[in-house]
Amino acid sequence: MDEILQKAKRVFDIEIQALEKLRDNLGDNFVKAVELILNCQGKVITTGVGKSGHIARKVASTLSSTGTPAHFLHPAEALHGDLGVIDSGDVVLAFSNSGESPEVNSLVPYIKLLGVPLISITNNPHSTLAKHSDVHIFLSVEREACPLQLAPTSSSTASLVLGDALAMVLLELKGFTEKDFALRHPGGSLGRRLRQVADLCHKGEEVPIVKEDTPMKEAIIEMTSKGFGATAVVGQEGKLIGIITDGDLRRFVNRGGNFDTSIARDVMTKNPKTARMEELAVEALKRMEDYKITVLIVVDERGTPVGIIHMHDILRAGIL
Fold first, then answer.
1. Class of domain 197-316
2. 3-state DSSP: the chain helix, strand, coil percent, rounded to 5?
3. Which partner from 32, 188, 215, 268 sits 20 to 30 angstroms from 65, CA to CA?
4. Would you identify the CATH topology of the domain 2-176?
Protein backbone atom coordinates (compact mmCIF):
# COMPACT_ATOMS: atom_id res chain seq x y z
CA MET A 1 0.00 0.00 0.00
CA ASP A 2 2.72 2.49 0.99
CA GLU A 3 4.70 1.70 -2.13
CA ILE A 4 1.70 2.41 -4.36
CA LEU A 5 1.02 5.72 -2.67
CA GLN A 6 4.66 6.73 -2.89
CA LYS A 7 4.69 6.06 -6.64
CA ALA A 8 1.54 8.15 -7.07
CA LYS A 9 2.94 11.01 -4.98
CA ARG A 10 6.11 10.94 -7.08
CA VAL A 11 3.98 11.73 -10.14
CA PHE A 12 2.39 14.65 -8.31
CA ASP A 13 5.76 15.96 -7.20
CA ILE A 14 7.32 15.83 -10.66
CA GLU A 15 4.35 17.53 -12.32
CA ILE A 16 4.12 20.19 -9.60
CA GLN A 17 7.80 20.96 -10.11
CA ALA A 18 7.22 21.30 -13.85
CA LEU A 19 4.36 23.73 -13.27
CA GLU A 20 6.38 25.80 -10.82
CA LYS A 21 9.22 26.12 -13.33
CA LEU A 22 6.82 27.05 -16.12
CA ARG A 23 5.21 29.68 -13.88
CA ASP A 24 8.58 31.17 -12.95
CA ASN A 25 9.73 31.26 -16.59
CA LEU A 26 6.64 33.02 -17.97
CA GLY A 27 7.72 36.21 -19.70
CA ASP A 28 7.31 38.53 -22.64
CA ASN A 29 6.22 35.84 -25.07
CA PHE A 30 3.25 34.94 -22.91
CA VAL A 31 2.28 38.61 -22.83
CA LYS A 32 2.64 38.84 -26.62
CA ALA A 33 0.44 35.77 -27.06
CA VAL A 34 -2.26 37.30 -24.87
CA GLU A 35 -2.09 40.59 -26.79
CA LEU A 36 -2.31 38.80 -30.15
CA ILE A 37 -5.43 36.94 -29.06
CA LEU A 38 -6.93 39.97 -27.32
CA ASN A 39 -6.62 42.04 -30.50
CA CYS A 40 -7.81 39.20 -32.72
CA GLN A 41 -10.81 40.21 -34.83
CA GLY A 42 -11.81 36.61 -35.49
CA LYS A 43 -11.39 33.42 -33.51
CA VAL A 44 -8.58 31.31 -32.09
CA ILE A 45 -7.85 28.15 -34.04
CA THR A 46 -6.17 25.56 -31.81
CA THR A 47 -4.41 22.57 -33.30
CA GLY A 48 -2.29 19.63 -32.29
CA VAL A 49 -2.04 15.87 -32.76
CA GLY A 50 -2.06 12.99 -30.29
CA LYS A 51 -1.98 14.06 -26.63
CA SER A 52 -1.30 17.63 -27.75
CA GLY A 53 -4.42 17.44 -29.88
CA HIS A 54 -6.50 16.52 -26.85
CA ILE A 55 -5.02 19.48 -24.98
CA ALA A 56 -5.71 21.80 -27.92
CA ARG A 57 -9.32 20.67 -28.09
CA LYS A 58 -9.84 21.27 -24.38
CA VAL A 59 -8.21 24.72 -24.54
CA ALA A 60 -10.49 25.68 -27.44
CA SER A 61 -13.48 24.67 -25.35
CA THR A 62 -12.27 26.69 -22.35
CA LEU A 63 -11.59 29.76 -24.47
CA SER A 64 -15.00 29.59 -26.14
CA SER A 65 -16.84 29.28 -22.84
CA THR A 66 -15.03 32.24 -21.28
CA GLY A 67 -15.46 34.89 -23.94
CA THR A 68 -12.81 34.08 -26.57
CA PRO A 69 -14.32 32.32 -29.61
CA ALA A 70 -12.18 29.30 -30.50
CA HIS A 71 -12.29 26.21 -32.68
CA PHE A 72 -10.18 23.04 -32.68
CA LEU A 73 -8.74 22.06 -36.05
CA HIS A 74 -7.27 18.57 -36.51
CA PRO A 75 -4.09 19.01 -38.59
CA ALA A 76 -4.70 15.93 -40.73
CA GLU A 77 -8.26 16.96 -41.55
CA ALA A 78 -7.05 20.49 -42.24
CA LEU A 79 -5.05 19.26 -45.22
CA HIS A 80 -8.18 17.68 -46.67
CA GLY A 81 -10.49 20.65 -46.71
CA ASP A 82 -10.91 21.80 -43.11
CA LEU A 83 -8.22 24.45 -43.56
CA GLY A 84 -11.04 26.61 -44.84
CA VAL A 85 -12.17 27.19 -41.26
CA ILE A 86 -9.27 29.63 -40.83
CA ASP A 87 -10.16 33.23 -41.71
CA SER A 88 -7.85 36.19 -42.20
CA GLY A 89 -8.73 37.71 -38.83
CA ASP A 90 -7.96 34.56 -36.83
CA VAL A 91 -5.01 33.49 -34.68
CA VAL A 92 -3.64 29.93 -34.71
CA LEU A 93 -2.52 28.38 -31.41
CA ALA A 94 -0.52 25.20 -32.04
CA PHE A 95 0.45 22.63 -29.40
CA SER A 96 3.34 20.21 -29.94
CA ASN A 97 5.64 18.88 -27.24
CA SER A 98 8.52 18.25 -29.64
CA GLY A 99 7.67 21.00 -32.09
CA GLU A 100 8.44 18.50 -34.85
CA SER A 101 5.06 16.85 -35.41
CA PRO A 102 4.84 16.43 -39.21
CA GLU A 103 1.06 16.85 -39.19
CA VAL A 104 1.26 20.19 -37.40
CA ASN A 105 4.31 21.52 -39.21
CA SER A 106 2.72 20.74 -42.58
CA LEU A 107 0.14 23.44 -41.78
CA VAL A 108 2.72 26.18 -41.26
CA PRO A 109 3.20 27.18 -44.94
CA TYR A 110 -0.56 27.51 -45.43
CA ILE A 111 -0.96 29.51 -42.21
CA LYS A 112 1.76 31.87 -43.43
CA LEU A 113 0.11 32.10 -46.85
CA LEU A 114 -3.13 33.18 -45.17
CA GLY A 115 -1.25 35.82 -43.21
CA VAL A 116 -2.57 34.53 -39.91
CA PRO A 117 -0.44 34.93 -36.74
CA LEU A 118 0.90 31.65 -35.34
CA ILE A 119 1.43 31.07 -31.61
CA SER A 120 3.12 27.81 -30.68
CA ILE A 121 3.54 26.03 -27.35
CA THR A 122 6.36 23.47 -27.35
CA ASN A 123 9.05 22.03 -25.14
CA ASN A 124 11.74 22.71 -27.73
CA PRO A 125 12.53 26.37 -28.48
CA HIS A 126 14.79 25.30 -31.37
CA SER A 127 12.15 23.18 -33.09
CA THR A 128 10.81 23.77 -36.57
CA LEU A 129 7.44 24.89 -35.23
CA ALA A 130 9.00 27.29 -32.72
CA LYS A 131 11.25 28.89 -35.35
CA HIS A 132 8.35 29.53 -37.74
CA SER A 133 5.99 30.96 -35.12
CA ASP A 134 5.23 34.61 -34.56
CA VAL A 135 5.21 33.90 -30.84
CA HIS A 136 6.62 30.82 -29.11
CA ILE A 137 6.00 29.83 -25.49
CA PHE A 138 8.55 27.41 -24.06
CA LEU A 139 7.17 24.81 -21.64
CA SER A 140 10.58 24.30 -20.00
CA VAL A 141 9.67 20.79 -18.80
CA GLU A 142 12.82 18.91 -17.81
CA ARG A 143 11.34 15.45 -17.24
CA GLU A 144 8.11 13.59 -17.62
CA ALA A 145 6.40 11.90 -14.70
CA CYS A 146 6.47 8.71 -16.76
CA PRO A 147 9.31 6.53 -15.35
CA LEU A 148 10.16 5.48 -18.90
CA GLN A 149 10.26 9.11 -20.06
CA LEU A 150 7.98 8.15 -22.92
CA ALA A 151 4.35 9.04 -22.15
CA PRO A 152 3.63 12.81 -22.19
CA THR A 153 2.69 13.61 -18.58
CA SER A 154 4.44 16.66 -17.15
CA SER A 155 4.51 18.25 -20.59
CA SER A 156 0.81 17.67 -21.27
CA THR A 157 -0.10 19.00 -17.82
CA ALA A 158 2.05 22.08 -18.40
CA SER A 159 0.42 22.65 -21.80
CA LEU A 160 -3.05 22.36 -20.30
CA VAL A 161 -2.31 24.76 -17.44
CA LEU A 162 -0.71 27.22 -19.85
CA GLY A 163 -3.85 27.12 -21.98
CA ASP A 164 -5.95 27.74 -18.87
CA ALA A 165 -3.71 30.67 -17.95
CA LEU A 166 -4.24 32.22 -21.38
CA ALA A 167 -8.00 31.77 -21.12
CA MET A 168 -8.29 33.18 -17.60
CA VAL A 169 -6.09 36.20 -18.31
CA LEU A 170 -8.17 36.95 -21.41
CA LEU A 171 -11.36 36.51 -19.39
CA GLU A 172 -10.26 39.18 -16.92
CA LEU A 173 -8.95 41.58 -19.55
CA LYS A 174 -12.23 41.37 -21.47
CA GLY A 175 -14.30 41.99 -18.35
CA PHE A 176 -16.12 38.69 -18.81
CA THR A 177 -18.92 38.34 -16.22
CA GLU A 178 -21.10 35.64 -14.68
CA LYS A 179 -23.95 36.73 -16.91
CA ASP A 180 -21.74 36.35 -19.98
CA PHE A 181 -20.89 32.87 -18.75
CA ALA A 182 -24.57 32.04 -18.30
CA LEU A 183 -25.28 32.87 -21.95
CA ARG A 184 -22.72 30.24 -22.98
CA HIS A 185 -23.84 27.58 -20.48
CA PRO A 186 -27.62 27.33 -20.65
CA GLY A 187 -27.60 23.63 -19.76
CA GLY A 188 -26.33 21.69 -16.79
CA SER A 189 -25.87 22.76 -13.19
CA LEU A 190 -23.71 25.75 -14.10
CA GLY A 191 -26.34 27.11 -16.45
CA ARG A 192 -29.10 26.57 -13.93
CA ARG A 193 -27.21 28.47 -11.23
CA LEU A 194 -26.73 31.37 -13.61
CA ARG A 195 -30.33 31.70 -14.73
CA GLN A 196 -31.89 35.11 -14.26
CA VAL A 197 -34.99 36.09 -12.32
CA ALA A 198 -36.64 36.94 -15.66
CA ASP A 199 -36.40 33.26 -16.64
CA LEU A 200 -38.32 32.01 -13.60
CA CYS A 201 -40.62 34.73 -12.31
CA HIS A 202 -44.36 35.07 -12.97
CA LYS A 203 -45.44 38.04 -15.06
CA GLY A 204 -48.51 39.81 -16.40
CA GLU A 205 -51.88 38.72 -15.04
CA GLU A 206 -50.23 36.22 -12.71
CA VAL A 207 -48.81 39.00 -10.53
CA PRO A 208 -50.99 39.83 -7.49
CA ILE A 209 -51.30 43.63 -7.20
CA VAL A 210 -53.66 45.87 -5.24
CA LYS A 211 -53.76 49.62 -4.67
CA GLU A 212 -53.05 51.06 -1.24
CA ASP A 213 -56.69 52.02 -0.73
CA THR A 214 -58.06 48.61 -1.76
CA PRO A 215 -60.41 47.16 0.91
CA MET A 216 -58.75 44.27 2.70
CA LYS A 217 -61.50 41.84 1.72
CA GLU A 218 -60.60 42.44 -1.94
CA ALA A 219 -56.86 42.26 -1.18
CA ILE A 220 -57.34 38.84 0.45
CA ILE A 221 -59.24 37.64 -2.62
CA GLU A 222 -56.34 38.82 -4.82
CA MET A 223 -53.85 36.97 -2.63
CA THR A 224 -55.94 33.79 -2.63
CA SER A 225 -56.71 33.75 -6.34
CA LYS A 226 -53.08 34.22 -7.43
CA GLY A 227 -51.80 31.56 -5.02
CA PHE A 228 -48.54 33.15 -3.83
CA GLY A 229 -49.63 33.94 -0.28
CA ALA A 230 -48.77 37.58 -0.95
CA THR A 231 -49.70 40.63 -2.97
CA ALA A 232 -47.85 43.74 -4.02
CA VAL A 233 -49.32 47.06 -2.87
CA VAL A 234 -48.88 50.06 -5.16
CA GLY A 235 -49.40 53.78 -4.66
CA GLN A 236 -51.36 56.15 -6.88
CA GLU A 237 -48.52 56.27 -9.44
CA GLY A 238 -48.34 52.49 -9.68
CA LYS A 239 -45.02 52.17 -7.83
CA LEU A 240 -44.47 49.50 -5.22
CA ILE A 241 -44.93 50.84 -1.69
CA GLY A 242 -45.54 47.62 0.25
CA ILE A 243 -46.40 43.94 0.36
CA ILE A 244 -49.03 41.94 2.20
CA THR A 245 -48.18 38.34 3.06
CA ASP A 246 -49.93 35.61 5.03
CA GLY A 247 -47.70 36.60 7.93
CA ASP A 248 -48.91 40.20 7.73
CA LEU A 249 -52.51 38.98 7.91
CA ARG A 250 -51.80 36.96 11.08
CA ARG A 251 -49.95 39.83 12.72
CA PHE A 252 -52.79 42.22 11.86
CA VAL A 253 -55.33 39.91 13.48
CA ASN A 254 -53.13 39.51 16.57
CA ARG A 255 -53.09 43.32 16.90
CA GLY A 256 -56.86 43.31 16.95
CA GLY A 257 -57.29 44.54 13.38
CA ASN A 258 -60.58 44.31 11.52
CA PHE A 259 -60.55 43.31 7.86
CA ASP A 260 -64.07 44.68 7.37
CA THR A 261 -62.97 48.25 7.98
CA SER A 262 -59.33 48.16 6.84
CA ILE A 263 -57.55 48.86 3.56
CA ALA A 264 -54.32 47.44 2.15
CA ARG A 265 -52.22 50.34 3.46
CA ASP A 266 -53.22 49.44 7.05
CA VAL A 267 -51.89 45.87 6.80
CA MET A 268 -48.96 46.03 4.40
CA THR A 269 -45.26 45.88 5.23
CA LYS A 270 -43.63 49.03 3.85
CA ASN A 271 -40.52 49.05 1.63
CA PRO A 272 -40.42 45.29 0.99
CA LYS A 273 -37.40 43.41 -0.35
CA THR A 274 -37.52 43.21 -4.13
CA ALA A 275 -35.77 41.61 -7.10
CA ARG A 276 -34.87 42.79 -10.61
CA MET A 277 -35.45 40.91 -13.84
CA GLU A 278 -31.78 40.96 -14.83
CA GLU A 279 -30.33 39.65 -11.56
CA LEU A 280 -29.37 36.03 -11.03
CA ALA A 281 -32.03 33.81 -9.50
CA VAL A 282 -29.45 32.48 -7.03
CA GLU A 283 -28.98 36.05 -5.74
CA ALA A 284 -32.73 36.39 -5.24
CA LEU A 285 -32.77 33.08 -3.38
CA LYS A 286 -29.99 34.25 -1.07
CA ARG A 287 -31.96 37.41 -0.29
CA MET A 288 -34.99 35.29 0.64
CA GLU A 289 -32.87 33.11 2.90
CA ASP A 290 -31.15 36.09 4.54
CA TYR A 291 -34.46 37.80 5.40
CA LYS A 292 -36.39 34.56 6.03
CA ILE A 293 -39.02 35.31 3.38
CA THR A 294 -40.40 33.14 0.58
CA VAL A 295 -41.45 35.63 -2.08
CA LEU A 296 -40.06 38.73 -3.80
CA ILE A 297 -41.86 41.29 -5.92
CA VAL A 298 -39.92 41.96 -9.13
CA VAL A 299 -39.74 45.65 -10.03
CA ASP A 300 -38.48 47.64 -12.99
CA GLU A 301 -36.15 50.66 -12.89
CA ARG A 302 -39.07 52.92 -11.89
CA GLY A 303 -40.09 50.71 -8.99
CA THR A 304 -43.20 49.40 -10.73
CA PRO A 305 -44.11 45.73 -10.02
CA VAL A 306 -43.56 43.64 -13.17
CA GLY A 307 -43.31 40.15 -11.70
CA ILE A 308 -43.25 37.94 -8.64
CA ILE A 309 -40.91 35.07 -7.79
CA HIS A 310 -41.40 32.45 -5.08
CA MET A 311 -38.66 30.41 -3.45
CA HIS A 312 -40.29 27.28 -4.86
CA ASP A 313 -39.90 28.63 -8.41
CA ILE A 314 -36.13 28.78 -7.89
CA LEU A 315 -35.84 25.41 -6.16
CA ARG A 316 -37.95 23.69 -8.83
CA ALA A 317 -35.54 25.02 -11.45
CA GLY A 318 -32.71 23.11 -9.76
CA ILE A 319 -30.73 26.21 -8.89
CA LEU A 320 -29.22 24.45 -5.86
1. alpha beta
2. 50, 20, 35
3. 32
4. Rossmann fold (3.40.50)
